[in-house]
Amino acid sequence: MQPSKQFRPFTERSWVARQWLRVSHWIVGLFFRMWCRLRIEGTDHIPAEGGVLFASNHVSLLDALLIPYTVMYTQGMQVVWSPAKEELFRIPVLGRILLSWGSFPVRRGRGDLRAMRRINTLLRSGKMMLFPEGTRSPDGTLQPGKRAVGKFIYHAQPVVIPTWVSGTEHILPKGARVPRFHLPVYVRYGPPLDLQRYYELPDSKQTAEAIVQEVMRAIAALQHTPASAATTFNSATQPSGPQYESSTPQN
């Protein structure tokens, strides 16, 4: 279901819309260059085509821009779809950028069936970013994932790329209005998850819960994975990030 111009991929957008995405990408990149010491790792794990889900922890409003920005910076101009709370789109500049980058509003606390159908559709053919925790972590620790994310994965069966973000909670802490300067920010993309065994199980709450738990374990494990080749902006300093526990994956 792609009923409007908003949901066209980058190559099918108008010349003006493509130029706006390029300009806004440059502006966001300028922000990260001025305010952050950004390190990106693991983008070789990201498929060029097909349904892809970036399942990430969530510690700051900046995460919604940082993940699409790093994907576009390393893989070329494209749209990374993402649902976001509708309040964000009332912020004039941020709301306009989020819409053009592929974010769409979701009514929180109510069953937004239209948004759910849209997520399932976009997950099958495009790149999408979801925060399985559902909201920003209050203290940086990884929170339990929402079963609905496991349900989306079960039905769409995208390539799931676990993603870990660290440092954005210090650049723009929850409740802050003014960013802090020159702090390290780190984005790590993990290898695709093998979830095939879950797709052979019945469509149930238990299956969805098992899927999202596996995803959360993979996100948690990224903190402790040895560093590899990375793209670095301004500094090679790698932030330690918040401390949390990762579980051993179980079959």
Distance between the termini: 34 Å
By secondary-structure content and strand pairing, the structural class works out as alpha/beta
CATH topology: Glycerol-3-phosphate (1)-acyltransferase
Order of helices and strands: HEEHEHEHEHEHEHHE
The CATH class assignment is: Alpha Beta
What is the CATH homologous superfamily assignment?
A: Glycerol-3-phosphate (1)-acyltransferase
How does the major sheet shape up? Answer: 8 strands, mixed
Poorly predicted runs: 234-251
Q: Give the rounded overall mean pLDDT.
A: 84
Give the tally of structural domains: 1
Helix content: 25-40%
The proportion of strand residues reads 15-25%
For the CA atoms, what is the radius of gyration?
17 Å
CATH architecture: 3-Layer(aba) Sandwich
What is the β-strand count?
A: 8
The largest beta-sheet arranges its strands as 4-3-5-2-6-7-1-8
How would you characterize the overall build of this protein?
By secondary structure, the chain is of the alpha/beta class. It has one domain: Glycerol-3-phosphate (1)-acyltransferase, CATH 3.40.1130. 37% of the residues lie in helices and 17% in strands. It has helices at residues 15-35, 63-75, 92-101, 113-125, 147-156, 168-171, 196-199, 205-221, and strands at residues 36-41, 52-56, 80-85, 103-106, 127-130, 159-166, 183-189, 230-232. The chain has an eight-stranded mixed sheet, sandwiched between helices. It is globular. The two termini are 34 Å apart. The model is unreliable at 234-251 (pLDDT under 50).
